[in-house]
Design a protein that fits this description.
This is DNA ligase (ATP). By secondary structure, the protein is of the alpha+beta class. The chain is built from five helices and 15 strands. A hairpin with a 5-residue loop joins strand 11 and strand 12. Bound molecules: adenosine-5'-triphosphate and manganese (II) ion (2 copies). One manganese (II) ion binds next to strand 10.
């Protein structure tokens, strides 16, 4: 087993076919996380993150100079890209070559190319037209408390469960929470997005003081945007276990519902403490994520 990155730069800067150049380059100056530190984090969490990043079109937030430098949100391949990162022709857009990884070498090649955030589509490359998850992204407006965000997550859960769907939650690693439902890939993008929009619109209609479902910034003060737009074709959301290019090297961490409390904020888990958390868990709260998948319900009345 590789020496943990978390302990410093003594590990060999090479895993499989991927060579890390400048392993000591600091990606998160405030947290002291290096390129090698990130590679070691991903090598450790590979079995957990694989279902969420392998075999899916990816958008990447690249930050070659680290989080304080210039960043690029990139949805297509680039010149000089590693062979471990694959390209996939999007059948509905001949100009588009989507970014895909298949294995840990692919993920490490992403680290080598300074991808500090990994944002997959909610679909696998096996069938690009049938999403395999719903992601409800809860975005707090100014002045919204963490307790209110937690309430919103429970409200989304209640509505998804009422539709007969399993519901999971993760921190975003930023400011909010992501409520995620594994779907059996059967409905198409339009149906899934319409379903997600229906939930967001219903919440905004039923509790207009708390929720909005449109992205108009001015309307969001003191409210939570129930962002359903993560569910369209080509839309992305940060992957479970992905790092974020934000202060403290946070990661998007899957949680158990009863972990939602003041003790764990949206950026509580980081590249530095995530592996300890995972090692200490008696049960992975997302253990049944894929096995509990359900098809999008029909006849939802929308
Ligand atoms: P937070 O909890 O802070 O909201 P988040 O990951 O949910 O964290 P959002 O701003 O709500 O962040 O979502 C932005 C989403 O839009 C991302 O998930 C990403 O996939 C997508 N996206 C599209 N363009 C960009 C871009 N230029 N930079 C960052 N994200 C982008
Ligand atoms: Mn968000
Ligand atoms: Mn959002």
């Amino acid at each position: 087993k590789r020496e943990s990155a978390l302990s410093g730069g003594t590990a060999k800067p090479e895993v499989g076919k991927v060579k890390l150049t400048h392993p000591d380059r600091i990606y998160w100056p405030d947290a002291g996380v290096t390129k090698e530190g990130l590679a070691d984090y991903y090598a450790e969490v590979w079995p957990k993150i694989a279902p969420f990043v392998a075999g899916r079109p990816l958008a990447l937030l690249r930050a070659p100079e680290g989080i304080d430098g210039q960043t690029f949100f990139q949805k297509h391949g680039w010149k000089g890209m590693s062979k471990e990162i694959k390209l996939l022709q999007d059948p509905s857009d001949p100009t588009d070559e989507l970014i895909v990884i298949e294995d840990l070498d692919g993920l490490l090649a992403l680290v080598q190319s300074a991808a500090l955030e990994i944002h997959p589509w909610g679909v696998t490359t096996k069938n690009l037209e049938k999403p395999d998850m719903i992601i409800m992204d809860l975005d707090p407006g100014e002045g919204v408390s963490w307790a209110q965000i937690i309430n919103a997550a429970y409200e989304v859960r209640r509505r998804l469960e009422a539709a007969g769907l399993p519901v999971f939650v993760k921190t975003s690693g930023g400011k909010g929470l992501h409520v995620v439902t594994p779907l059996k890939p059967s409905a198409g993008w339009e149906a899934v997005k319409a379903f997600a929009k229906g939930i967001a619109d219903d919440m905004a209609e039923d509790e207009p003081d708390r929720y909005v479902s449109t992205i108009t910034k001015s309307k969001r003060k003191g409210k939570i945007l129930v962002d359903y737009l993560r569910n369209g074709r080509g839309a992305t959301a940060v992957a479970a276990y992905s790092s974020r290019a934000r202060k403290g090297a946070p990661v998007s961490m899957p949680l158990d519902w009863d972990e939602l409390s003041g003790a764990i904020g949206p950026a509580y888990f980081t590249v530095l403490n995530a592996t300890q958390r995972l090692a200490a868990l008696a049960n992975d709260p997302w253990e049944t994520f894929r096995s509990s998948e359900k098809p999008l319900p029909k006849n939802t009345g929308r």
